[in-house]
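Tutorial, part two.
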Amino acid sequence: MIASFVTMAQSQRALMEQLVRQGLWACAPKAVVARQGWDFVGERALYVLAVGKAALTMAAGVPAHVRVSAGLVISPVAGEVPGFDTVVSSHPFADERSIVAGQSARRFVEAVPADALLLILISGGTSALLAEPRGISLAAKRAVVDAVMAAGAPIAEVNTVRTALSSLKGGGLLRACRASVVTWAISDVPGDDIGVIGSGPTIIRAAPDPAGQAIAARYGVAWPAVDIVPALPPRPHDHASVIAPRAALADAIAAQLSHPQRASLDGDMSAVAARLADQYARLAVGAWLIAAGEPTLALPAHAGPGGRMRDLALRLAILLDGQPFAALCVASDGADGVGALPIAGAFVDGSTAQRGRAATLDLPAASAIAGSAAIWHALGDELVLGHTGANYADVVLLQRTATSLA
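Running the prediction step on this input gives:
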């Protein structure tokens, strides 16, 4: 019985992967940038800085007819874009490469002539890729940020803390910029708040220190003594916009299906998994559910290797054991968690838990320590997309199927 179910599951997985790959193609950052209006450049010299997990693909989207005087890409992966220099930095955790990248970005911005135009392309991951701590060591800054993240803080709170500890974030990158600046961002944050995306290096905010300190205190994290920096002056001639929303990938997948139901992945991981299971129970046979967002998880003291989407898939395997369903849990950038080979997520269905038991795998124990990586590797259900060059919300694509193990 399991063998026949696995054969059907393989066909279901292939369909779901095709839907995801087509969705990634439809919302590719290169195409998003290319289809923007470019008349705003006029006769001014144009300088372009691209930072984030989608930096390479966003920079590649600058049309060939647009003359770029100088360009700089700061990315977590190596690559080449004609007309651009490239700096490889660190993600998801800032290190000394992030310091070097921050210095490179600041020098680039400050060198742009006052009568030129600076276009800055921002995507998620910028917070780690650019680092310039405010009078504290990088290790001290990371200790605070990592502790807040491990406590399960949502990304908006994490980036508020980062901004309060940084000289580059919250508009600080432009402190000595003489040129007019246009910022285009693709979103990976709730509400598509451009000041939260990548911690808003070009978006001047009110002093974030009290908010950052209050967030850290709420999670029991000690706050270091940081340098006080002067408030940034207003920049009335700058313009900033989100050119692709957080839900872009989910929307692109939904466009390929007939009336799929939608859901959110935001909130505590356990609550998100329970919510998806409840919504699944109300689906008709053959109906689709597309959920997007970023679940949060307070990591246990001895957490195992894994990632949000693989951990969520494991919880679905346990909650929907033996039920007629299939789901693909996907990190849009192709990297769910940390690892030498980027794993984008996992495929899960009604047979997963039973196959795990047959292989003497303890799914509940792995879930308890957020250590899903070994389970999916052993079952052969890891999703590998490579570095997609995109960075939107995580996505779960789920269908109620006609066949059950029961």
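The longest strand covers residues 68-75. In part three we will examine how such features are distributed along the chain.
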